[in-house]
Amino acid sequence: MLAYALRRVLQSFLVLLVVGLVAFSMFRFVGDPVDNLLGQERTQEDIERVRADLGLDDPFLVQYWTFLKKAATGDFGLSYRQARPVGDIIAERAPATLELALVSGTMAIFFGVVLGIFTAIRRDGWVANVIMSTSLIGVSLPTFLIGILLIYLFSVELGWLPSFGRGEVVDLGWWTTGFLTASGLKALILPSITLGLYQMTLIMRLVRSEMLEVLRADYIRFARARGLREKSVNFRHALKNTLVPVITVTGLQLGSIIAFAIITETVFQWPGVGLLFINAIQFVDIPVMAAYLMLISVMFVGINLVVDLLYFAIDPRLRADRTKAH
Prior knowledge:
The protein folds into two domains: 1-81 and 283-326, no CATH class; 89-280, MetI-like fold, CATH 1.10.3720. It is mainly alpha-helical. The protein has helices at residues 2-26, 34-37, 44-54, 60-72, 86-121, 126-140, 143-157, 182-215, 218-225, 230-259, 261-267, 273-282, 286-314, 316-325; strands spanning 170-171, 176-177.
């Protein structure tokens, strides 16, 4: 187990290095940040001074290595646009994104599992067929279009919910939250539905597919033949085996909620790290872009590593395969 864990950690570290190198390479083609930092009256001496101060005259590999060394200590440099530490800027924006991801993820998991179980058990009912047909909306429509439609219906036409912003928030010193105010809770509704709808649909269809496969297994038929109640067969035997692969996919989807919050935050002007990244692209704020992509990479690689280790720990077949290999 220890050797497997160390090998996976090393592989994850190498993946992060490659992802960081690719991302940092792409930023060279975004534009020159000096154009945004200096006005029209700049001189050649001003340009050379700023490039030297930012280390832009150094070779690419030197710039990347400097970034990695500082990032390992939590120092992502100064924002070219705001002239503030990138870590402080991300820390200010992180609560908005994390709260949005928490609400969206909770909604996606709860309704996805419940509706998946229902449509599997009642697969021949008209309600299940309506749910499955409606779920195609969450799969086929782009996220930004879903957000625009929700804004038009609930904000423009009905006027029930705000169309942008985070609402009123409470500053707790180390955290800002909208959970403690009515306007903050109302502002969460539309972006949470927009962000979580696709994940909910995916989880629902996965749960339904896995449960239908389990319900056709021989041990389920044997359980019914023994006279067990249908409720016991469905929830004590079938559901338990259904959720094993679902947990893996759900963990990765929760990571993607944070990564793909960019579109939702842009549509609703939600003041999170996703909108910060979009603004950083517009102003060629390379430290902010690099920090964001590295943090997202760390999150995805970390989740994948945990899932791999959990699978190795709970699935005896993997350990058996490792034993035969040796």
